[in-house]
Amino acid sequence: MSLLAAKTIGKKFGGVIALNDVSLNVEQGEIIGMIGPNGSGKTTFINNLSGLYAPTTGQFIFNGENITGLAAHVITGKGISRTFQNLRVFPNISVLENVLIGLHCRIDVSLWDVYFGFVKTRKIEKQAREKAMDVLAIADLASRKNDLAKNLPYGKQRLLEICRAIVSDPHLLLLDEPCAGMNPVEMDDLAKFIRILQKKGITVFVIEHNMRFIMSVAERIVVLANGSKFQEGTPAQIQNDKKVQAIYLGDEGEL
Amino acid sequence: MQNIEQRSDKHESTFNNIIKFKSLLENQVYKKIAYILLLLFSVFLPNIVNNMYYMGIINYMILYAILCMGLNLILGYTGLLSLGHAAFYGLGGYTTAILITRYDFGFLPCLILSGIIALLFGILLGLPTRKVRGDYFCLLTIAFGEIFRLVAQAWIDFTNGAMGIVGIPIPQIFGWSIRTETDFYYLGLILLTFTFITLSLLVNSKFGRAFIAIREDELAASVMGINTAVYKIIVFGIGCFYAGLAGSYLAVYQTTITPSNFRLEESCLMIIMVIVGGMGSLLAPIAGVVVMTIATEYFRDIAEYRMLIIGVIMVTVLLFRPQGIFGTSAFKS
Ligand SMILES: Nc1ncnc2c1ncn2[C@@H]1O[C@H](COP(=O)(O)OP(=O)(O)OP(=O)(O)O)[C@@H](O)[C@H]1O
Ligand SMILES: [Mg+2]
To answer: Do A91 and B216 touch (CB under 8 A)?
Structure first.
């Protein structure tokens, strides 16, 4: 059984058809890429998947469970985390606190515990901090734990956003153009980081415009065009596909 | 032009000292020592001051400190603008006044019930945060505040209208009669300590972090697994709980309460105190309370210009320190 099955997902915004009958499977443990020209519906797809929008048609089956249209916080609790195309770390709080907020749904503390279960709450808080520090260590951010997130360089903020997403041990991680604004060195670091995540058992779904990056990281690639699934295959197949080249050359010629 | 820059440089350096002082306090050992010294100082303060007029002013500062720390949870931590805080303060005040004068309740049950009633109404008013956006929610809170005041004025059978409730008896807790300014000081100090301890437990937990996340970026917060709708209701209820406690204190301290104690102007004053002191850190609003109370006392002779003076002070502080005297950088813009 696939980790995620998207079945004929459609999304309309008023008259605009942003997604049209997109079906795809994500297998446990893989790194799957999604590419497509600007406005082809990539972000809309993961916005629907992560519960920010409800799809107009179709279903998302995750771990055998229908999660279509559930609220975002519920879907996160079920093990789908994400980052944003336009970087949304919490700017005015520390790096460590950012990651701790990512751990929110895994911290089993009730209001009652806050006021009356002092010992339990303290112990859980301490574990949470250790966990957050472990994740920051993987991304080489541990030494900056007390810096405000907004004071990190851009590439580091992107890494922080990923840390915040993976600290809750998700089954599936959605990355929306993680390379945007990164220099080539940072991109290589990111590629390494994604492979580490894969080894840790996280399935990664990555949207990216940078072809060099996506071709080197993804094991399988889905191409979207005008809201529909246009092609699917290994990086080599996609790179050599004349039709895919055509939509990209027609659009911006990045391939 | 250059002049202005130099002037603001000078201010920067005095404020830098404040920042140094703050970073010193981040050390856990120093922090504990500071708290103990502060507590000792507070306990012996009446012996030092020994002047009933000044003790009275200090008591009002404590009252506003409780109000503003609760409001700061809503405004500074979670980023919800509420201009109806005086209504919850009033709900607490009337709960205590009515129960104590008509139903012979003891003060302690009155205090607790005042908090709880404010909490319940807070939750009720928090419910629309699910549906309406921030600025419309703010309008709703103004409306709620005004409705509360009008009801208190018009429902004469229950609230005695504009005359208010008078003759609230001397409160007693476990045999301790609270009569003098000093007694009320200690009662206030206990409530303030309670407020501080419970609030710091809350803001240092995952709940506090969730509130901050909502302030920083609500959409991202929801993707972190935070049920933002529920958290906003919770935070509103809890923030109002402290206003209820403060209202209860006001009732027994003044021995009389009237609807005019809970006007929109009061809500505005509380917000200004929080902004001037600094939003989003637990004790910072107290600085605003102290500055504003001293200023309004000092200019007492020209009381009709009270709001003008308050406005001038606020603008001056924010000019040099946009985040308030002790505020976190989140509000620096
Ligand atoms: N909230 C919305 N309301 C209305 N239209 C929207 C909304 N979100 C997306 N769209 C439209 O849906 C289409 C797909 O947008 P989407 O952001 O998913 O594209 P994308 O593939 O992520 O593009 P890019 O590469 O630029 O990020 C676009 O035409 C966009 O204008
Ligand atoms: Mg996009």
So the answer is: yes
Residue B14: its pLDDT value, please?
A: 58
pLDDT for residue B133: 77
How confident is residue B3, by pLDDT bands cut at 50, 70 and 90?
Answer: very low
- The per-residue pLDDT for B20 is 61
Task: State the first-to-last Cα distance of chain A, in angstroms, to the nearest integer.
Answer: 33
Tell me whether residues A73 and B207 touch, CB distance under 8 A. no
Q: Is B282 within a domain?
A: no
The angle formed by the CA atoms of residues B86, B89 and B91, to the nearest 5 degrees, is 110
Q: What are the domain boundaries of chain A?
A: 1-79+170-255, 89-168
Q: Answer yes or no: is pLDDT of B210 > 60.
A: yes
Q: Suggest the residue from B26, B28, B199, B206 to mutate for an interface test with chain A (most A CBs closer than 10 A).
A: B206
**Residue B2: which pLDDT band, with cuts at 50, 70 and 90?**
very low
Architecture per CATH, domain A1-79+170-255, reads as 3-Layer(aba) Sandwich (3.40)
Q: Looking at the domain assignment, is residue B143 inside a domain?
A: yes
What is the mean pLDDT of the segment spanning B74-88? 92
| Residue numbers in B near A95 (CB within 8 A) | none
Q: Determine the residue of A9, A43, A53 to mutate for testing ligand 1's pocket, defined as the one with the most ligand atoms within 8 A of the Cβ atom.
A: A43
**Cα B31 from chain centre:** 23
Domain containing residue B63: 56-262
Instruction: Say how far apart CA B237 and CA B222 lie, in whole Å.
Output: 20
As for how many domains chain B has, the answer is: 1
Residue B309 counted as domain residue = no
Is B150 contained in some domain? yes
Amino acid at residue number B194? F
* Helix, strand or coil, per DSSP, at residue B172: strand
State whether B224 and A71 contact (CB < 8 Å).
no
Residue nearest to atom 1 of ligand 1 (CA): A13
Quote ipTM for the complex.
0.90
Interface size between A and B, measured as CB pairs under 8 A:
85
- Dist. CA B249–CA B97, nearest whole Å: 10
Range list of β-strands (E), B253-310: none
Distance CA A231, CA B53 (A): 81
- For the four alpha carbons of A136, A140, A143 and A147, in that order, the dihedral sign comes to negative
Residues near B196 by Cβ (< 8 Å), separated by ≥ 6?
B69, B282, B283
Q: Tell me if the pTM is above 0.90.
A: no
Q: Sign of the C-alpha dihedral, residues B115, B119, B120, B122? A: positive
